[in-house]
Design a protein that fits this description.
Distance between the termini: 65 Å
Structural class: alpha/beta
Low-confidence stretches: 1-9, 271-287, 566-572
CATH superfamily of the largest domain: 2-enoyl-CoA Hydratase, Chain A, domain 1
Shape: elongated
Largest sheet: 9 strands, mixed
Mean pLDDT: 90
Helix content: 25-40%
Strand content: 15-25%
Number of strands: 19
């Protein structure tokens, strides 16, 4: 049975699952949105069904399919192309391999396009390309997000090079939305291949895949027949794609609307641009008692003791702070270049109702978690994922919060082969020019360029028992003292404590920790950190983008210069 059998008001009595081959009561399958309740297999649905599942009931306003030139080649294979078109229209009841509408998802206005695989394999034609482009233009006009549900075998061969040109046309339409700061979401269903994946399906800001959905440029059979390569198990499935950094998330149909609501609530929250137009309304700046801004407010401490304290595995990690501070967090995965870094986490959420992009380095508390997260040492894919998310934050005009907690970037052979140094360098350059507020906090260990790769910011904070250094004390001792046992001496010489960093102007403020350190009371530590983050955002949120960038550049320009010929670090900061 095809998915179209679910569309009618009368469901068939029994349906055989395509995967597990077990019989399913038709009404039960209908209630499950076409998902087998026994094995979780997501059956193929029609475009009409998908649009009905996606949009709020009664909100749909159909977008008429525009008129386009058809069969300009007079193409004939086993049957004339015109006959194939007529047959597809008769069988599906659709004019083309996609439908579109304006509507709402959980109350949020969207423009949506849904592809129909049963119409000539969902192939990208002049008609489909024009419909996607027109819908994107309406999204631009209405200033609402664009959601595309993809299902396709690729560009339509019967329309020749003109179908190829639709890849450019649709990519150009998404570029216009990028320039306007309008978010886009691609939903990958099974199957999605060819020219569709090499254009709009993978160009959206966020890519969500259904479980088991296959996506790729060349299909598995093409690869095997062309280069005789043995393909790995699960190749090109959603799970494979998530592992290799190609999609942000896998969601079941039951989860999809909730996920879209959380994503769009953040990404579509406006004002989008901080460099033009009216300034957002600012709330009065607060300076919570937990934030210390003068070195004399902090006791002199032994730097080696601080280094050991910062490495305590019981201290809260990035995901702990996200859980305690960020509402409706949706984690996003992958660098879109083939990598996913378990040591780098990021996503969107709300801090007291304010949309934020959160990025951090994650270690974990147990030996298993530390191993799984690579001991918090990011791979090149981690820095590239962070860069992708920061660009998305800039596009949508939302602040960036980063949590730094790493002994350093991963030093292995694979990291070097994949451009570890360049990945960090590109982030430094990107963050210097990002036109949205950036607040960074060193929550435990800030090691070398691995930490700096996500720590260029308008406000840099540090927890009282955290440290930030050009190198680990052990590394410094091994190189300069030629004796790892000299690590305590090296730590003192590096002046890596929060007090020293505040005195040098490397950080803007120190967040006091509860008695016994952050590890003694996670909730209290999160409350103090949350107060400090809110205060920082209050100071920055009304500053236009160009002023943010200018002040940030002045801040870093001043480091290391003589006070006689440069502005101080304090002068380089924006007024509170």
């Amino acid at each position: 049975m095809t998915g179209s059998a679910l569309a009618g008001t009368r469901a068939p009595s029994w349906v055989l699952c395509d995967r597990c081959r077990l019989p399913i009561y038709g009404k039960r399958l209908l209630r499950a949105q076409g998902v087998c309740p026994e094995c979780g297999h997501h059956r193929r649905l029609t475009a009409v069904e998908r649009l009905a599942q996606l949009l709020d009931p009664g909100s749909e306003r159909p977008i008429e399919a525009p008129a386009v030139a058809e069969d300009m080649l007079g193409f004939v294979d086993q049957v004339p192309y015109r006959d194939r078109l007529s047959d597809a229209r008769r069988r599906t009841g659709l004019h083309e391999a996609a439908i579109a509408a304006l509507g709402r998802v959980c109350g949020i206005p969207v423009a949506a396009v849904v592809m129909e695989f049963e119409f000539m394999g969902g192939s990208l034609s002049n008609g489909v390309g024009e419909l996607i482009t027109v819908t994107a233009e309406l999204a631009l006009e209405e200033s609402c997000p664009l959601v595309i549900v993809c299902a396709s075998g690729g560009a339509r061969m019967q329309e020749g090079a003109l179908s190829l040109m639709q890849m450019v046309k649709t990519s150009q339409a998404l570029l216009a939305l990028d320039n306007a700061g309008i978010p886009t979401v691609s939903i990958i269903t099974d199957p999605t291949f060819g020219g569709v994946t090499a254009s709009f399906a993978t160009l959206c800001d966020v890519i969500i895949a259904e479980p088991g959905a296959r996506m790729g440029f060349a299909g598995a059979r093409v690869i095997e027949r062309t280069i005789r390569q043995q393909l790995p198990d699960g190749f090109q499935t959603a799970e494979f794609l998530l592992e290799h950094g190609q999609v942000d998330a896998i969601r079941t149909r039951a989860q999809l609307r909730g996920t879209l609501h959380r994503l769009l609530s953040v990404l579509a929250a406006r004002p989008r641009r901080t460099d033009v137009g009216n300034k957002p309304v600012s709330t009065p700046a607060r300076r919570p008692p937990a934030l210390l801004t003068e070195a004399r407010q902090l006791p002199a401490v032994d730097s080696w003791d601080i280094a050991r304290m910062a490495r305590n595995p019981s201290r809260p990690c990035t995901l702990d702070y996200i859980r305690m501070l960020i509402d409706d967090f949706e984690e996003l995965h992958g660098d879109r270049l083939g990598g996913e870094c378990p040591a780098t986490v990021g996503g969107v959420g709300m801090l007291d109702g304010r949309p934020v992009m959160v990025i951090g380095q994650q270690k974990g508390h147990t030996a298993a978690e530390l191993n799984q997260r690579n001991f918090g040492m990011p791979l090149p894919a981690g820095y590239r994922k962070a860069a992708r998310l920061m660009r998305l934050a800039a596009k949508c005009g939302i602040p960036v919060l980063t949590f730094v907690d790493t002994g350093g970037a991963y030093p292995g052979v694979s990291a070097e082969e994949n451009g570890q140094a360049l990945a960090i360098a590109e982030n430094l350059k990107l963050m210097c020019g990002l036109p949205v507020p950036i607040v960074s906090v060193i929550i435990s260990e800030g090691g070398s360029g691995g930490a700096l790769g996500i720590a260029v910011a308008d406000r840099v904070l540090i927890l009282a028992n955290a440290f930030y250094s050009v190198i680990s004390p052990e590394g410094c001792a091994a190189i300069l003292w030629r004796d790892a046992a000299a690590a305590p001496q090296a730590a003192r010489a590096l002046r890596l404590s929060a007090r020293d960093l505040l005195e040098m102007g490397v950080v803007d403020g120190v967040v006091a920790e509860p008695d016994g350190g952050a590890q003694a009371d996670h909730e209290e530590m999160a409350q103090r950190l949350g107060d400090a983050l809110r205060a920082a955002l209050d100071e920055l949120r009304s500053v236009p983008g160009p002023e943010l960038v200018a002040a940030r550049r002045a801040r870093y320009r001043a480091f290391g210069r003589s006070p006689a010929n440069s502005c101080s670090t304090t002068d380089a900061r924006m007024p509170a």
